[in-house]
Amino acid sequence: MFAEPALAAGHELVEWLPHEATPPSLDGFDAAFVFGGEAQVDEEDTYPWLRTEKTLLRVLLERRTPLLGVCLGSQLVAEAAGAVVRRGRQPEIGWHEVALTPEGSADHVLGFLPDRFEGFQWHHYEWLLPPAAVALARSARGLQAFRLEDRPVWGVQFHPEVTEADVGSWLDGWDKDPGAVATGLNPEAIRAETAAKIAAWNEVGRTISERFLTRSV
Length: 217
Description:
- This protein has about 220 residues and is an alpha/beta fold.
- It contains 7 helices and 7 strands; from the N terminus they run H-E-H-E-H-E-H-E-E-E-E-H-H-H.
- It has a single domain (about 5-215), classed as Rossmann fold (3-Layer(aba) Sandwich).
- The protein is about 35% helix and about 25% strand.
- The chain has a 7-stranded mixed beta sheet.
- The two termini are about 20 Å apart.
């Protein structure tokens, strides 16, 4: 969902999978998306590539490169910006209501959203607000979006980038996620709810990407 507006605007996209390759040279990059994954932010011993990604993010922040982090990506960006990232009291999985703060309603990237909207979630960890950051959105379980006040850097805990196929593949692996199983939720109910809501949600994802890029590139 994030790639479509970027390609339509004529931007070049460079994909880096940190568990498969060394990072690219950062020269010439105008902005970066930072996405999620199965790792947790404090699992560097299990996923050593996290160390490389964290180093790269600190460099991008020092360069004031525009960043948009999603889920784990937002947690990594928040940690690089000085925030505490920790395991949440309980996982937040499925479709949950998110409310914009007044700052979120005025934000360039997220301000097009209604004051309250349903967003797709799948996370076990959460971040606290980084220093010199403003909260843009919250859910009943915690913070959902932030922006650094002194540079074009955003983080969202919800998943505006997912397709129905993405969600389906995650649900297919439900039994491999002990935290998900422990919620007692019905993955097939989430699958059905996603089928009904994903088209409108994908428009949200495209718009977030487009607005981030017009602000950043």
